[in-house]
Amino acid sequence: MAAAAGSAQQATPPPPPTPPASSPPATSGVAPVRTVVPRPEGAPLASDSAVVVGQVVDGHGRALPRAVVHLIGESIQDAVIADDKGRFLFTQIPPGEAIVIVQKPGYSDGAYGKRRPGGVPLPVSLHAGEGIADMRIEMFRSAAITGLVTDDSGDPLIGVRVVAMRRMFDNGRWRYVPAGVEETDDQGFYRIFDLVPGEYIVSVPAASYSAPMAALDMTAHDIRISAGLSRLAGTLPGREDGQPLAAGQTMRVTTDGRDLIWSAAIVPPDADDQDIGYVTQFYPATERQLLALPIVLGAGEVRYAVDFRMTPVPVYSVSGRLTGDPAAVANQFVRLVPAFDSDRTDDAAATVTRDDGTFSFRRVPPGDYRLEAGSDPTVQEPADASPGTAVGFWAQAEVKVGDADVTVPDIEMHPEVSLSGFVFGEPDADGKLPDISALRIPVTITPAGPGLSGARQLTANHEFNLQNLIPGRYYVQAGALPAGWFVKSIEAAGQNALDDPVEVFDGSDPVVVTITTHATEILGTVRDARAVPAAGATVIIMPIAPTGESVWTPNRIRETRSSTAGVFTVKGLPPGQYLAVAIDDAVAENWQDERVVATLRTLAVRFELQPGESKSLNLRQSVLRR
Amino acid sequence: MTKETTETTGTTRTTRTTRTTGTGKAWVRWCGAVLFAATATLFARDQATLRITVHVTSFETGRHIPNASVEITEEGSDVVRSSRADARGVVTYPALKAARYHVRAGAAGYRPMSFGEEPGLGGTLLAVNAGRAPIELEIALHRGSTIAGVVTNDLNEPVVGADVRAINRHSPVDSRLLVAANAKTDDRGAYRLIGLEAGQYFVSATDGLSVAFANGTGTPATPRLITVGVDAQRSDVNIKTRPSPTGTIAGSIAGPGAGAPGMSVMLMQDAAGAGFVGVTSARIEPGARFTIADVPAGKYVLIARPGTVRAWARTAVSVTANGQATPTVALHPGGRISGTVVAPSGVRGTVGVSPLGADHPEAASANSGPVSAGSFAIPNVAPGRYRWLPSPEMPPMWGADYTPSVFLKDQDVTDLPFEVGPDAAIENVRIELTRTARVSGTVRDASGKPTSRGAVIVASTSPRDWTEVSRRIRLARADTAGFYEIGGLPAGSYTVSTVTALSAGQLGDPAFLKTLAKSRQVTLTQGESATVDLRLK
User: Fold this and answer.
1) A28 to B155: CB separation less than 8 angstroms, yes or no
2) How far apart are CA B83 and CA B105, in angstroms?
């Protein structure tokens, strides 16, 4: 697959602990303020601990008041609220590496050493009896998109969901990932805020859902969907939280006596009478995600007038029947995914099969679709390594909707398959296998194409078994291994699975992961144009494919940052030919873009790693113009 | 053609009026809260079914509202038929049986309204008689009023994600607070509270740690009422939050059941004028202890939510800057209400009390549990002001002709709010089922034609009964045929009058009720039905 090179696997130095995931309190309001008084000049420091004094600023260098500042080290987690001049102070910090992260409503998280909204924190080394007196942390103001949604007569559409999707590099591919959702107000306006600066497309999704009445437990005030159909239950209007309807809350559902029918978003006028519906719209006025106009938002930028005018289109029903084992056809989740756009994973319509395997989609706009039956591929289920999990079933078919109702030929359900594997330690010089029974190896599989099961991860010891997979090609990765251990090879049926996806099918050979303590190691330095050590530079290492093209090889791509002393370390790269390049972190956002990768390749240093080799690599920070 | 039948029962003249329209089409146009025209224009048309068509329009533009929803409910029925309007904003019911119906419409961005709704008077019933006449009616929806503004802190930074609420009182004489609308601030600190009725509101903003009010001053801010007119927009209701040094509350629960599963404490702030408002809550940890950190300095009240334990607690607590308050929230068993239920066998129900007002946040509803004839008791009643809430399950054949009345020392106190003090004992309460009376009649306009405009007020002549929970002050609309009926009245002396408009809470205002003294008066005995025909002024 010729594509942009892969995304980051963070190499050393790793951020010590996990940063806080939850939002900070709304400190700009009446929240508590612990005034921070920096240490007076000349005041003595405790000999066994360190001190950090700093200031939080915006992109213009102006002080930002009352941000929550977290210091997270190997043996400390502390947080303070900066004062009205943005100043903060940490004392009694145990020596070691730590990261400093800043949170404030209306801003993307900042961190020491973070030069861009999507960047990573730069660890600082804190030594006993020393202090950092001038830590300056920049925050990036969030961006917003706002506009108006009307119907075809210009009247505002109220309570309509509008979704902003950010372009992200994920598992070797660029995707648009939902980043913000808001509903239109009583005037039809929406405002999606708290957006990280980046590239977005905006849509008004419209999907049609239905479920057999037999699958519903209906009362006068509530509708519940049978267990196992939670994917559909979440789409019920007003039921996103899965809670019963509150008093006075209404749901807009209709029924033809056999099925209950509802819409994820909006229904045009007289939809019931004239079989018309809305189709998902992308800004500006297109039904194709490929034709959506990307909106590039800078820090603090507000993009106005991202308006939608929803026009009804004729819609038709799509009916069919699943065949096979009775347990495989009844009560199955079935959905239509737009196939006329690559990378679309949203529902155009979804339903549940009746006991006899028959199903009917309602209000489907004309177009090409992929019918998916069985487990929902978009759900990233936790993998179950234990044997005995119930076998699932799957089916896929192409569906074309023109200008009439469609009856799909019978679709046969197939049993899902499993992928088993073993983990071996590399034998020592005497050929003796090391005891790895106590090791926990995180193994991840990710689909190499659309329509497959979602990414899964499990923790294996000497063997593993991933069940309920749709047959197809998957990448296999071994994640962060126990200290001192590295991946040497991944093979399936004698083929290299370290760089290429594995073909998973019924009866496919097990995957063999070999780990070793004899890892390759790169000890490097980065210097700027004046030969001064470059702190916080982004170092990218990517393989050279036999074809000479950049390829998505997750096990061979590394992204790391040089330390405050300009040094970096990368361990555990498989032997092979590589390119290494160092660039200013401020311009490293989305470096996986194919054009950027092409430029990086011209700036990079080529080197080869032999098995177990320890290599010294001195890089000059390159100037990347974007 | 109108047919009226009259029958006499004892000393009470009972009139049952049946109106039959021969043929025709009733077109009932209603123009929102301002204009109501019940013009029954009859057209000669032979229809096999009773067809009702509801037009849902915007009062503002006059245009139909697609996707509006319409609910139609037969009088006395719990079955609500819901429908969605078509592209023209029209819903048609092809075959409704002769009865009286409540009709209500709603649409996204509009306030739901009943057919014939007028300010303070509510909606009117649609009378569908046996004339098989198609009826078309219009419900013009209002967008309602809007309060909008910006929430900023003392540094003029927007407060993002604050919860903003419009709060109003039940009525001038009923201080209970209701959240009429709420919204969250966006990245500009902007909020927009929509669909409000005209009236006065407190507007508060909270970030989960403390509460600030629009136009508030002081610490904590003193709330001011924001007035908004019909369909008006106030876009200048800005809220300023103020920083405050904070402290911690590290308290404990004491008393029987302290620390039981499900127990929590609520921290409440006394927002002068707006009553107590909840600030935050905390779970009770093992050892019956709780901690609330980062509490802005000030005075608060802690209320225990005892969960499965039947007890109450209220403790004042003062938080100082960087200080730690260590209150002990003591659980008390509460007061006890006991007495006797006098009822025929087969009648079961509960005797309950419900809190009134916002001055006693610890007050909570309590009841006896299921009881039949014999003694009853309501234990663990927290201090506060209450109303009686006896709820019998009447045998179906009794209909709505009986009502439970509460007697204390042979005085009917059902409609009198009462106070329960700490550890109080209210004994010898007697609950009896008493037969109710009814008043009905026809409302006519100045030309003598039946009309559904205005409303009928039946009010006790005794100022003692002019309470916010009285069964003896009643309001009803005449149906589209001009017929009104008010049942469930305790025996007594009443005035019967009409009004064309009523402001919020006016029905509970003694000054207003006093002006009704010169209206028609009727004295009702138990079980009596009286006919009082009225002329709308």
Assistant:
1) yes
2) 9
Q: Which two tokens stand for residue A575?
A: 């032997």
* Residues whose CB is less than 8 angstroms from the CB of residue B113 and which lie 6 or more positions away in sequence, other chains included: B32, B33, B104, B105, B106, B123, B139, B141, B142
Binary contact (B241, A29; C-beta < 8 A): yes
Q: Is B472 left (phi over 0), alpha (psi -120 to 50) or beta?
A: alpha
Nearest to B66 among A185, A252, A269 (CB): A269
The one-letter amino acid at B212: A
pLDDT of residue B274: 66
**Collapsed DSSP state (helix, strand, coil) of residue A594:** helix
> Closest Cα of chain B to A106: distance in Å?
6
CB within 8 Å: B192 and A31: no
Per DSSP, A521 falls in state E
pLDDT at A189: 95
**Strands A333-338 and A349-352: what pairing?**
antiparallel
Residue of B67, B158, B221 lying closest to A270 (CA atoms): B67
Number of Cβ pairs closer than 8 Å across A and B? 113
Distance CA A74, CA A71 (A): 10
Q: Which residues of B touch A194 (CB under 8 A)?
A: 160, 187
DSSP states of A247-302: TT-----EE-SSEEEEESS---TTHHHHTEE---EETTTBS-GGG---EEE-TT-E
Tell me how far CA of residue B238 lies from CA of A474, B214, B242, in angstroms: 55, 6, 13
Better-predicted residue by pLDDT, A44 or A147: A147
Per residue in B282-297, pLDDT (tens digit) is: 888 888 899 998 888 8
Contacts of A185 in chain B (CB under 8 A): 192, 194
- Residues contacting residue A48 through CB under 8 Å, at least 6 positions apart: A95, A128, A129
- Please report the pLDDT score of residue A46 as a whole number: 56
Q: Tell whether the model's pLDDT for residue A154 goes beyond 80.
A: yes
Over residues A2-33, the pLDDT tens digits come to: 334 444 343 433 334 444 443 333 333 333 33
Q: How does pLDDT run across A378-388, given as a tens digit for each residue? A: 544 544 444 44
Check residue B87 and give its pLDDT.
64
What ipTM does the predicted assembly reach?
0.73
